[in-house]
Amino acid sequence: MFTACKKNDSPAPAPTPVSTTGTVSAVAGSGVAGFANGTAGAAVFSYPTALAVDASGNLLVADQANNQIRKIVTTSGATTTFSGSVTQGSSNTSAVGTLASYNNPAGVAVDATGNVYVADYGNNQIRKIISTGAVSTLAGATSSGKTDATGTAARFNGPSGVAVDAAGNVYVADFNNNLIRKITAAGVVTTLAGSSAGKADGTGTSAQFNGPRSIAVDAAGNLYVADANNHAIRKVTAAGVVTTLAGSGSIGNADGTGTAASFYHPAGVAVDVNGNVYVADTDNNLVRKITPAGAVTSLAGSGYLSLITPFNAPAGVAVDATGTTVYVACSLGNVILKVK
Questions:
Q1: How far, in Å, CA of 128 to CA of 109, rounded?
Q2: pLDDT band (50, 70, 90) for residue 296
Q3: Confidence tier at 308 by pLDDT (50, 70, 90)
Q4: Which domains are assigned to the chain?
C-alpha cells in the first residue's frame, strides 16, 4: 500500500503542545478498515487517502485499499461506490462504474464539467471518469517511467496526486519520479517542474522535490504541492517557477510564517476561493491552514502520532466552495471528518 513516509527519516522530536481552532465532526466511516456502503457510521472504508468536492458539494474519496472511488452525500453521509471494484486490477480498456478496475488509487479531482480524474498509483496511470461512469485512461501505462508523450505513450512512476485547472489541464504529483507533470485535455504530457530527489527552489528541472504526494490548483493557475519527504508545502506557477510556501524542511509541528513553520510528512493539500491552503499534516495528526502570505496555523488534530485520536494519519483534504468547511480523510482512522 502506498505511503509517503521514508524509512530512513530521522526520529521525530518530542511532541510540543498544539493550539487548534476548528470544530470537528464525523461525516462517514466506521473507524474500522473494510468495505461497506451505507450512511454515516455504517459506511466502511479502507485507507482513504484523497478527497475532492464536486459541484453539488458532495465528496469523492480515493478509497485506496479498496481500489475504489467512493461518493459521499455530505448532507446525509450516504456513501456509495462511484467507480471501481474491490478487486485490484489493471485494465486499460474503457469500463463503466464497478466494472472498472484500479490499483491503489491515491488521488482524485473533479473538473468544472463534472469529469473525475484519478491518480491510479499502482497502475502508473491517470484515469478519467465521465458523467456516464465510463472510465478511460487519459495518460500513462502500467509500466513505469518518466517519458513525456501523448496518452498511453507517456509514463509515470507512482502518480499519487491530481488536480485540474479551469482550462481543463490536469496536473500530477508523480511521486516516485519526484516530478510535477502537466496533461492537456488532448492527453499531451509534459514535465512542468522537478528532477532528481532533493529540495531546491527554481524553475522547471532546476527545482527539486522529494516525494510530492498531492497537488492543488488555485483560481490563478498556481499549484500547491505537499512535498511529503521534505516536510514542506511548495508553490509552482504556471510557468514552472517553484518556491517554498511553508515548512522548514525539518520534522516538527510549529506554527509560524514560511520556513518558521514545520510539518511531518504532509500528504494532502487543498486551496479555497480566497487562496488559503489547507494541509493534511499526516504524521502530526493535524490539519493546518496557510494564508496567502504563508502564515501557518493548526485547525484541528493532536500534533503528535496517536492511534486514539480520530485524526489518525490524515492523508487527504478538500474544502467546499465557500471555504467554510474542510473535509479530511483519515487513512488509518478509516473515517471522513469535517472541520469548521
A1: 10
A2: very high
A3: low
A4: 111-339 (2.120.10.30)
CA distance 271 to 146: 27
The half-sphere exposure of 311 on its side-chain side, counting CA atoms within 13 A, is: 28
Q: Which whole number is the average pLDDT over 268-276?
A: 98
Return the pLDDT at 7: 38
Q: Quick check: 290 pLDDT over 60? A: yes
Q: What is the DSSP letter of 44?
A: B
b/e sequence 219-255, b meaning 16+ C-beta within 10 Å: eeebbbbbbbbbbbbbbbebebbbebbbbbbebbbbb
User: How far apart, in whole angstroms, are the C-alpha atoms of residue 79 and residue 237?
Assistant: 36
Contact between residue 108 and residue 60 where contact means Cβ atoms under 8 Å apart: yes
- Length of the chain (residues): 340
Which three-class secondary structure state does DSSP give residue 97? helix
